[in-house]
Amino acid sequence: MAMNGAQSLIRTLADADVDLCFTNPGTSEMHFVAALDDVPQMRAVLGLAEGVVTGAADGYGRVAQRPAATLLHLGPGLGNGLANLHNARRARTPVVNIVGDHATYHKNLDAPLESDIEAVAGSLDGWVHRSVAPAQVGTDTAAAVAAARDAPGRVATLILPADVSWGDGGAPAAPVAPREPRPVPSETVREIAKVLRGGEPVALLVGGAACREPGLRAVSRIARATGATTFTETFPARLERGAGLPGIERLGYLAEQVSYQLDGVRHVVVAGTRAPVSFFAYPGKASELVPEGAQVHTLAEVGDDVVAALVELADEVAADVAPELVPAHRPELPTGELTPQNWAQVIGALLPEGAIVSDEANTSGLLVPSATAGSPRHDVLTLTGGAIGQGMPVATGAALAAPDRPVVNLESDGSALYTIPALWTQAREGLNVTTVLLNNRAYAILRMELQRVGAESSGPKAGGLLDLSTPDLDFVRMAEGFGVPATRARTAEQLAEQFRRALAEPGPHLIEAMVPPLL
């Protein structure tokens, strides 16, 4: 059967188990759009903005542990989706990015949408390639999928010129094996075991795949046997937690928190992540957060088989030690007006078994981890790269990856506005996403940062840039406009009743929780 380039691309994707494409297409991608009907295995999901498309691909990849594709319109479309691709890069999520481009003979005309796509895609520190002929598209696509799945996962961008897409001579290509995680030498494991047995205070910091059950169990065994203090990275891509799992504390966001957590430590062992640094630079404060005089030891680099290394280390230093597991416990349902403290208690009291939590509550969510520590087992997807506007799209992708699990999006008001059209995609696809949107009518985290960088000001211009109350934002009406049922809660009792109801009903829901700023 004769194929054009677009048909061979989609068939190759489907043969490589990439069967979902998030898209906001344009003229250059119309032959890809038309070819979707020729490959029934491929599901296409429309996003109204590219940030929704790329964020949904990130959420899908984190939960499915395999890539989805995106289809974006030239350089500006890629640019619009770049923030959530940045988060995907930091999460090490496998994503296959397909970016349409002008026909090869049209590029030198400098048409209005002409841009340097390679330069934009190259900033993601992933894999970038341009197809130059229909006959090569299948092979290029197979290579892109393998590159996205290379351990530990990355963004692979394939640029598809319009004439290469519509040109005849395409053919699907067989899947290509990705790069597997690198094994950690047993000698390295033994060296780390000596550090743990050396009698000096040790902190063990883990990230990546180590934040799931097998890695966490090994970490807990090591801690119980050696007395090491253990932490996960500050913003793990996917953290498994709750009753019946080890409760490993996350490293703090603020440098002051990390200084307290690592106080007195003489050795920092990193596994599947890197030594901690401050999120930002601050006048007169250190950017590197390892305590002065402490040594850093690497058990497993990013891309190494960190779980196998941790299990081997646990067998070396804690052969007969079982992990310490968190018992089931929930906070009691609170009463009264909503506060930054009690809304989190409502979530902890009612979080359902097997939930996937997309957490972008930011300052309003500081107490969520403690409130949900003993809730039924759940996964948390965090803001890995710090580029806000992730929560709603990531929840959308997660719901498509795990349609049998409830997805709870804990969302802040300022961040929601970046990608709120994700609600429309949730409604269109009938996704079981319950969004609890914390409306404190402010960029509260920036109020804190204004002080922390030494630029404290009470002036009206500075204050006005951090205020979201003039005019007030009505998220109930916004959600309803996108086709999502919505309610508003001002008390803990209202939030509990509305949260219960939203979880019990199919499809998406939004609850606007009116809370004062914590900071």
From TrEMBL:
Q: Which UniProt keywords apply?
A: Thiamine pyrophosphate
Query: The Thiamine pyrophosphate enzyme TPP-binding domain covers which part of the protein?
Result: 376-512
Source domain of life: Bacteria
- Which molecular function GO terms apply here? acetolactate synthase activity; flavin adenine dinucleotide binding; magnesium ion binding; thiamine pyrophosphate binding
The Thiamine pyrophosphate enzyme N-terminal TPP-binding domain sits at 3-108
Please verify whether the record's keywords include Translocase: no
**Xref: Pfam families:** TPP_enzyme_C, TPP_enzyme_N
Against CDD domains, the record matches this protein to: TPP_BFDC, TPP_PYR_POX_like
Keyword hit for Amino-acid biosynthesis: no
Provide the family line: Belongs to the TPP enzyme family.
Q: What is this protein called?
A: Acetolactate synthase large subunit
According to its UniProt entry, this protein's organism is: Saccharomonospora piscinae
